[in-house]
Fold this protein.
Amino acid sequence: MGEEIIISIIKLLIFFFAMFTAAAYTTLAERKIMSYMQLRKGPNRAGPWGFLQPLADGIKFIFKEEIVPAHTDSKMFILGPILVIAVSLMPWVALPFGDTITLFGREIYMQLADINTGALFMISISSLGVYGIILGGWASNNKFSLLGSVRSAAQMISYELPLGLSLAAIFILSGSLGTRDIVLSQIASPWQWNIFVQPVGFIIFFTSILAETNRTPFDLAECDSELLAGYHTEYGGFKFSLFLFGEYINIITASAFMAVLYLGGWSIPFVNLHDLGLSPNVIGVISIIVVLAKTCFFVFLFIWVRWTLPRFRYDQLMDLGWKVLLPLSIVNLMITAAAVLFTK
Amino acid sequence: MINVREKYLGSNDRMSFWDRLYLPAIFKGMAVTLKHMLFSKSVTTQYPEEKRVIAPRYRGRHVLKRDEQGRERCTACYCCAYICPAQCIKIMAADVTPEIQHNHPGDKYAKSFEIDLFRCIYCGFCQEACPKAAIFLEDIYELAVDSRDKFVIGKDVLVAKEGGPRKIRV
């Protein structure tokens, strides 16, 4: 039992630092990709290719003065970003980022905890993220911030349902709520990947997760042009950086989640790693790299979508959520259920 | 009144099924951005290393010219100061004494010649007014300095280091 705890703590620490580094470098990736799409070069002063830019930004954020505006509810004001960052890190508990690695004669799952309702846990935790945004916006005592957080909440409610329903179709297909089992159900061939089995479900899920992570075209909560950055208008320095990191960690989480749910986790198309006669640890490392690559692809997709599409108007967003995605996801769920029922 | 939708989509007042699906249009747009990212060259100039070619008529900071023998062309006639709409030129004239004759061809010279760059509107009237081809607005545009009083520049900054033939305004 004691060893289990030590293993968990080590995994947790590695994961924690990896996550913050990854989020920092996602900001760089975003800025670089955006620049190249807009025929610019992007940050290229700090280190080759702007590689030290996240570090410089981080140092700047930490050494900035901590300002709490006088008219705000200061406790809530500080709680907002803390909640956002905490909640954005939590879903990773249930996310498998690779197969197993054997160290010192123990088989270690590349997952912090294999909860048997992992996917459900992730979805429920990630929807808590909106509380941080609401608290931040409310405590700022600023009408733009409040509008931003109200929008975020409304958006969350209308996109949570299609998100959950498209997930339910996957649960029916794999017969399990655990993320590891969902991966194992897709691993046999790439045609069993859920993106091919559930194409409509994937589109619904991707659209909803864009709304869930407050990314363009659904970034109405921060909406620079009308709301002056929305819920984080009043934030600066380190507290702002927590919001920022929260957002980017959410993107990575969502990407990894989609890689696991729809792209078959650590399975490589037409290659069965266990047939190649490699040692189990090599297979474990390869599986981590594969999950990472798929996650990177989805992170790129997020950035790509953001710098292509214009923002939705608020009523269009609601229309899309309630009148299109929700009925579509219900139909998708019913068809999936019927197909599974009649083929078994 | 022109009905744009009628003009470009035909007379049906509803969008087609594919238009309402948004997805084909989204994919088209994403193809454009991807093409930009992968194949287009960036249009920006990497400033301190790379500089834009500026036009020959460009009016940057003033320079007080010297003639072929390296003497100051300015004879303190006050034409530039008189025509300056922003009144940014302040000249103090003095008689040329034999000791400094090698540096000043005329009878008078500008003992001090100050330009207030905050006031200057870079209109170029001074270079038009100058009868001696002594003052020109040249291609100097990196004017940032670290204190306000350095924006009032005197002869130590203004006077050209080397002489040359009479410059003709393009």
Q: What stands out?
A: The interface with chain A takes residues 23, 26, 29-30, 32-34, 36-37, 40-44, 46 of chain B (CB under 8 Å). The mean pLDDT of chain B is 85.
